[in-house]
Amino acid sequence: MTQIEKIYSNALIEFIKDKNSSILVIGAQLADREAFYNAGFSNVLLSGYDERVLEYKPYKWTKENGMSISFKDQSFDYVVTHSVLHHMSSPHKGLTEMYRVAKKGVLVFEGRDSFLIQVAEKLNFTQRYEVAGCYSTSGVDGTNIPNYIYRWTEREIEKTINTYAPAFKHKFVYKHWSLYPNGPDLSSLKKIILKVLRPFYFLFINIFPKQQNGFIFFIEKPTIERCLQPWLYLDSNNKKLEVDKNWVKKYYSKFRNKK
């Protein structure tokens, strides 16, 4: 089992406790099938653009556009994707679609836009566009056009979700990891330089773990009972969220009176 496969399987076990949970995987490949199978999950639906005949058993596969998922709200307990959001022309739309379809949580594996990765991009030690290894359906939106590699920060994730669902207080969990660059596009000289820098890199990220180039983020889906913002309430008559005018008057009139 490779380093990435171990990270993938271990994260599934850590964040999704019930192995009978219903799970939708966005942009699935054989690596996703292996990770879920090795972790012992049973109720998994794999989806994506790739219509090649691949051996996904015992799981089923369906064609889905990750930016416009055909399933209704909260159709699955969890929605998972591994290194796929950066293949979308609107990664933020892909993330909010995952959030919409999930009932309990969203689990994502993606690249992190750390300071070190920004330096590596400028020095051409890593790709900005995923040209190397690109094949049919692996580019932007399932085409063969190499996609821009959109890397995330924690703040971007939280802003995206809080904007999409402002009625709730959200719980975000992050785990950072590294995949040291050694791509097919690197020259022999650059590979030598990276080999020399390798021990210094791992020493640095031990001190500053957020400077790693990969991370996992888990978004726990909130409930009205536990996570509703204090200025809102659920109207039991029409089953709609309403603004608590008394709360607003109590807390914000103080600020207005001071002006």
TrEMBL record:
The keyword Transferase applies. GO terms for biological process: methylation. The keyword Transferase applies. Signal peptide: none annotated. SUPFAM superfamilies: S-adenosyl-L-methionine-dependent methyltransferases. GO terms for molecular function: methyltransferase activity. Residues 59-107 form the Methyltransferase type domain. Keywords: Methyltransferase, Transferase. This is Methyltransferase domain-containing protein. The lineage of its organism: Bacteria, Pseudomonadati, Bacteroidota, Flavobacteriia, Flavobacteriales.
